[in-house]
Amino acid sequence: MATFSALSTFAAAALTLQLLLVPASASPHLKYIDAICDRSHDQDYCVKTLTSNPPTAAPIGLNPLAEAVMALTIAHAEKTAAFLDETAKKDPALQTSFAEYHKAYLAVVADLKSANLKLKQSPDTAHYDVRASTDQMKRVEGLVAKNNDQASTTLKEMTVQMEKLLDLAASAADAVDDDDENIHRRV
Fold it and tell me: Whole-model pTM?
């Protein structure tokens, strides 16, 4: 009887170990996340963001995931634009500079919405639109760098987050590109 118990314990431990050692990409929906995150500059951030966000956590295909990534990025850009607009209205000292940053974020929103529309028909063009947004963020980052007030500090943090999300959006557009190795993953 003791032998059976020892064998059962050993079998349970072996099964648990196998389950723990299964790679993340073994999950069917994670292959789409991997297709995007493999192209990202910060793969850990990419995986963490896409697996913890409900619209991107269990994708049914590469295109729907890429669209969800674009939507996530657009939402952050819109949230930041709203923050800039409200701050410019409340603080006259920041009005001029924050109005300029607000315009940059509105341009990013427009570029990302354009990219989202082009994603299926022309992923190369979508990728270009996202990269154009990155240029806007570099401009904002350079302009706000000299400011030390609380609102500017918040904007700096939001801009860093935006740059990370833009990297995910560019990676998503690249992943759905027709002329790459991931065409078999498209749905």
Answer: 0.80
Query: Are 101 and 84 contacting, i.e. CB atoms less than 8 angstroms apart?
Result: yes
Q: Report the length, in residues, of the chain.
A: 187
Tens-place pLDDT, residues 22-60: 444 456 678 999 999 999 999 999 999 999 999 888 888
Q: Is 147 exposed, middle or buried (0-12, 13-18, 19+ CB in 10 A)?
A: middle
Give the 3-state secondary structure of residue 21.
helix
Q: What are phi and psi of 158, to 5 degrees?
A: -65, -35
Rounded distance between C-alpha atoms, residue 130 and residue 172, angstroms: 10
Q: Which residues contact 32 (CB under 8 A, 6 or more apart)?
A: 59, 61, 62, 65, 185
3-state class percentages of the chain: helix first, strand second, coil last, to nearest 5: 80, 0, 20
User: pLDDT tens digits for 122-146?
Assistant: 888 999 999 888 888 998 998 898 8
For tokens 């590109």, what's the residue?
Answer: 177
Give the span between the Cα atoms of 108 and 138, in whole angstroms. 12
Q: Which of 104, 118, 135, 105 is nearest to 172 (CA)?
A: 118
